[in-house]
Amino acid sequence: MLRYILQRSGYMIVTLFIIVTITFFLMQLLPGTPFSNPDKLSERQLELMEEKYGLDKPVPVQYITYIGNLLQGDLGLSFQYEGRTVGSMIGERIGPSALIGGQAVVIGLLLGVVLGVISALKHNSFLDYGSVFIAVLGMSIPSFVFAALLQYYIGVRLEWLPAALWKDYSHSFLPSIALSVLVIATVARFIRTEMLEVLGQDYVNTARAKGIGEVVVILKHVLRNALIPVVTVLGPLAVSIMTGTLVVEKIFAVPGLGEQFTLSILVNDYSVIMGITLFYSALFIFIVFVVDILYGVLDPRIRITGGKNDG
Amino acid sequence: MMANQRKEITDDLFVHEPLEEGKAEELSESPTSFWREALGRLFKNKGAVMGLITIIVISVLAIAGPIMNSYHYDDQDILRSNLPPLIPGLEWMGLDGTNVDGVNIYEQQGVTDAPAWAGTDEFGRDLWTRVWKGTQISLLIALVAAFLDLMIGVIYGAASGFYGGKVDDIMQRIVEILIGIPNLILIILFILILEPGITSIILALVITGWVNMSRIVRGQILQLKGQEFVLASRALGSSNKQLLWKHLIPNVVGPIIVTLMFTIPTAIFFEAFLSFIGLGLQPPLASLGTLIEDGYQEMRYFAYKLIFPAIVISAIMISFNVLGDGLRDALDPKMRK
To answer: Does residue A43 lie within any of the structural domains?
Structure first.
């Protein structure tokens, strides 16, 4: 197990390093300059600016400097916000994103499990078809379409919840709900198939034959075993939530990481784009890593095969 | 599998029943082929059939919709700006040309020429025409991207799985790194470098899109290449090329089709997503994403601008997902859930 973790950590670092390199050189290819209104700046001013950000040095030198700084946890300075470091910008924007993302996962897991369980227990009934239908809707409708409709009907027309901005806790509800839909759908589908499979297993019959109450059988024997594989979808779900935050935060004007990212793209703030890209990638790689380890720990039946999995 | 377990029942234990006169013809009829059987299973699945019909209807409308009325997708007419939808005969559905406050805008602005079935935008462009034109472009982007994914994915996956060993190792390390990067981020970076446009969106989608297809194909080929029919074919002297294209790839067609069915909605989603965050097509061109973005901006006062494209994109996504599920069940009865 320890060997496996070490090996995976090694892979993680190599992957991250390659991502840093790709991002860095892609940034070099970007058209335009990172300075707003370059026409208004005199040549001397431009020179001074470039010197300040180290843009006057040859690209390989810039690359080595960037990697060096990165190793010390320094992501550089923002081009657009005078004197702000990228690190501090990410730091202060991560809170709202983490809050709505976390709430979306909690809502999604709870409702998803409930829907999935109902579906599996009432297999081929109207309840089953109903929740399968909800799951298909949730997986198909793009998050930003759903978020926009939610904002319009619940926020603007009915005025049940605040439609946008970030003032108190209640402002986090609509964005969280918008993000949770995909989680609900994915988890519900997964739980349904897993439960149907577990329900047909011999040990469930054995448990029933021993006279254990149906509720206990379902909770302790069926649901518990059906929940384990759900861990595997957490990785892809984390990515979808990250993708979702980009637009959902824009729609609900949440001052989170995703909103900063879309904003920086529009104003060519290279260092911030790079910083957030690296942050997202690192987070993603880390989540996949944790999920893999967790899966092995939760289900001893799974043998870890040196990080290789086919298909 | 079953035959192996019952080896002790050998053929000579069986006595052939003599054929009845005239029955020989009937029996020699070719057995139902795999594909016909799969198609039969697919058509029994009501959801999948509905999905297929919806996709066909939307595709027809995407081609025919823009020429169903006299407006061109970039015709501007300030006199006709912000008209709510009005379809004569369907007034009871709310498509009566009135705004949120119940004021008939057509009477108010004195518009007497042909009504806008889906309303008009702030420049007076007809939204019916624009939405179907946008659907056309979104579908085009998705189809081309899916086709390129298919080509690259199948070749890469087949090569990796078929040759195995060192080649496979190196090719899979590359794939692992590509999977390690959240693909949306990579897509956004590429769009930033290439100027926004149809071609650059397609390229950006393909850069990460083929990976999934290649993994599916590789997995299948790895499973297949150990089977007896491959050995038999090799023993009969087929070349690698023949083996790959005549024996292996045809056996992977099922999973390829299923993956393709899920690639198309993913591409449509990413295209709309990019347009929504401002990295998509530039006006007057329209895609479903740009229309939703425009509609979203004015949703407070002109909700119809958002709702119509939102319905179309949701219908496309739902149909492809349901059809994909149906195809998977039909092509692989073992996976049926």
So the answer is: no
CB atoms under 10 Å from CB of A115, counted, come to 25
pTM: 0.79
Q: Chains A, B: CB contacts under 8 A, how many? A: 119
User: Poorest-confidence range of A3-7, B53-57, B298-302?
Assistant: B298-302
pLDDT at B53: 92
Residues 6+ apart with CB under 8 A from B27: B19
Q: Following DSSP, what letter does each residue of B117-143 receive, concatenated?
A: TT-B-TT--BHHHHHHHHHHHHHHHHH
- Reported confidence tier of residue A214, pLDDT bands at 50, 70, 90: confident
CB B131 within 8 A of CB B187: no
The neighbouring-strand residues paired with B104 are: B98
ipTM above 0.85, yes or no: no
With beta carbons under 8 A apart, name residues in chain B contacting A23.
189
Distance CA(A152)–CA(A158), nearest Å, equals: 8
B296 reaches A (C-beta below 8 A): yes
Top residue of B55, B276, B321, B329 to mutate, by most chain A CBs within 10 Å, is: B276
Burial degree of B46 (CB within 10 A; 0-12, 13-18, 19+): exposed
Which structure tokens are listed for B184? Answer: 């949306």
Whole-Å CA distances, B284 to A282, B76, B125, B293: 38, 10, 10, 14
Task: Choose, out of B101, B185, B258, the residue to mutate when testing the contact with A (most A CBs < 10 Å).
Answer: B185
Amino acid at A310: D
Amino acid found at B147: F
Check residue B144 and give its pLDDT: 93
Break chain B down into helix, strand, coil percent, rounded to 5.
Answer: 70, 0, 30
> How many domains, chain A?
1
Copy the structure tokens of residue B194. 């290439």
Local structure of residue A305 (DSSP, 8 states) = -
Is residue A68 in some structural domain?
no
- Confirm whether A291 is domain-assigned: no
Taking the C-alpha atoms of residue B327 and residue B105, their distance in angstroms, rounded to an integer, is 47
What CATH number is given to the structural domain containing A104? 1.10.3720.10
Q: With an 8 Å Cβ cutoff, is A36 touching chain B?
A: no
CB contact (8 A) between residue A152 and residue B189: no
CB contacts of B216 in chain A (<8 Å) are: 311
Specify if A13 maps to a domain.
no
Residues in A closer than 8 angstroms to B195, CB to CB, are 31
A59 and chain B in contact, CB less than 8 A: no
User: Quick one: what percent of chain A has pLDDT higher than 90?
Assistant: 0
Q: How many angstroms from the chain centroid is the CA of residue A179?
A: 10
Q: What are phi and psi of A85, to 5 degrees?
A: -85, 150
Who contacts A268 (Cβ-Cβ below 8 Å, separation ≥6)?
A: A30, A32, A33, A34, A79
Residue A136: list chain B partners with CB under 8 A.
47, 318, 321-322, 325
Query: C-alpha distances in angstroms, B10 versus B15, B44, B321?
Result: 11, 38, 47
- Binding-face residues of A in 145-164 toward B, CB within 8 A: 145, 148-149, 151-152, 156
User: Do residues A245 and A179 lie in contact, with contact meaning Cβ atoms separated by under 8 Å?
Assistant: yes
Question: Residue A175: which domain range?
Answer: 90-263
Look up residue A56 and give its DSSP letter.
T
Q: Which residue of B has its CA nearest to A31?
A: B193
